[in-house]
Write a structure and sequence with these properties.
Rossmann fold, 205 residues, alpha/beta, single chain
């Protein structure tokens, strides 16, 4: 039985350039798409769970990503995923970088391994820089007496303060585990609208 060549694509509210990731989709047997923050571990995403199921059924011949940060934004998450795939002799390809984890004979490619490790570190650094810049922007706005001085009538609440509330933190944990909003509402007592707001802020923080 022929195993599937899979193209995995991911977008979030920050990066919507899906066409670029799908440019070679005609070359693959199946495309799996996620619309979720890259901070969520790959196999915890809806599409990632589908990919994991196909791997468990021994139906996957290869998995391709447009670039390394599509499968994770921190070094540990990327390394854990690649180790999982190498153990199962499933090659992972990164199209933009032209890298593959395995050689044609199924052995691990040491040059690609080194390059992927370096790029994984860069992906994590970029993620941290974005978060740091966002935090600095909020703090600067506070100092200037702008938007984030606290909640006033008719204004928005400071996103960091909003997400730091205990129930909202709990909601974030459950969202990352792919709980449905209705389930989270029952567990935390939060209104569905509040959970929706938490979900939106998670994509940009």
């Amino acid at each position: 039985m022929k195993k599937l060549s899979i193209l995995y694509v991911r977008t979030s509210s920050i990066d919507q350039n899906l066409d670029r990731q799908r440019v070679q989709e005609a070359n693959f047997d199946k495309v799996i798409e996620d619309k979720i923050s890259g901070a969520v571990a790959l196999f915890e995403r809806p599409g990632g769970k589908e990919l994991f199921k196909l791997i468990s059924m021994d139906l996957v011949g290869s998995v391709s990503f447009w670039q390394i940060d599509r499968c994770g934004r921190d070094l540990k998450g990327i390394v854990d995923f690649l180790h999982f795939m190498v153990e199962r002799k499933i090659p992972v390809h990164f199209i933009e970088q032209g890298l593959s984890t395995l050689n044609h004979d199924g052995t691990e490619n040491p040059i690609s391994k080194m390059c992927i490790a370096m790029m994984s570190v860069i992906a994590e650094m970029n993620r941290n820089m974005i978060k740091s810049a966002q935090k600095e922007g909020i703090e600067l706005a506070k100092l200037k007496g702008n938007v984030f001085l606290g909640r006033k009538h008719g204004t928005s609440e400071d996103p960091l303060k909003f997400l730091s509330k205990s129930k909202n933190r709990r909601a974030m944990e459950l969202l990352k585990k792919n709980y449905k909003s209705v389930e989270i509402s029952k567990i935390t007592g939060l209104h569905i609208n509040t959970i929706t707001k938490v979900k939106k802020l998670m994509l940009v923080m």
